[in-house]
Amino acid sequence: MTEQRTALITGANRGLGRAVAVELHDRGLRVVVTARDAAAAEESAACLGVGVRACVLDVTDPESVKRAREEIGPVDALVSNAGVLLDIGSDPLSVPLDVVERTFAVNFVGAWRVAQAFVPDMVRAGWGRVVFVSSGTGSFHNGLFTGSPGYSVSKTALNGLTQMLAAQTKDTGVLVNAVNPGPTRTRMMPDAARTADEAARDIADAVLLPDGGPTGTFRRAELVFDW
Predict the structure, then answer these.
(1) Which of 16, 37, 159 is nearest to 81 (CA)?
(2) Core-most of 19, 88, 116, 121, by most CB within 10 Å?
(3) pLDDT in tens, 45-77
């Protein structure tokens, strides 16, 4: 890239989101760290280094997203990382549906809401990268994981959104892809073998895809998965 691009990461105050912010900052992007809590966002940004901005953004709150867009302005890349896993160990026949609704509010509707706020600017600018952090638990090819049904189906829906937005932005210079980082060691999955730093590199690679690169894919590094 010939100019410094700006990347916004949701849920970037810890875990995978913070690791992505570090990786993109190290690769020369101007990074905006967002989180629901102002102090958490500020602390994370301060730890990353010079030039990193912090902003409050709650993906479930339309007014919060609107304020963030007004404060930050247009960005070149969006990493939609904010997510929750609330129903591990349940099953489709007994999971409380209010838990499913809360899961969808963050993992799917929240991601869509933030995309509506920031992607139109990318289309107008003729350049942009959108990366949704998804999961193999939501893949029809793998078979949806029934042990966290709300989470799994929310990621299936997110994969569908990836394909729709990729089709909508085709030939505009905007690339929209989903990354399956695999089980990653974070607060959500403390026993996973893969580190957040390792997964963050795959997400950063999707942010830095070249012009004319793939769009509408489900990927990890150069590996492309079936939906």
Answers:
(1) 16
(2) 19
(3) 998 888 899 999 999 999 999 999 999 999 999
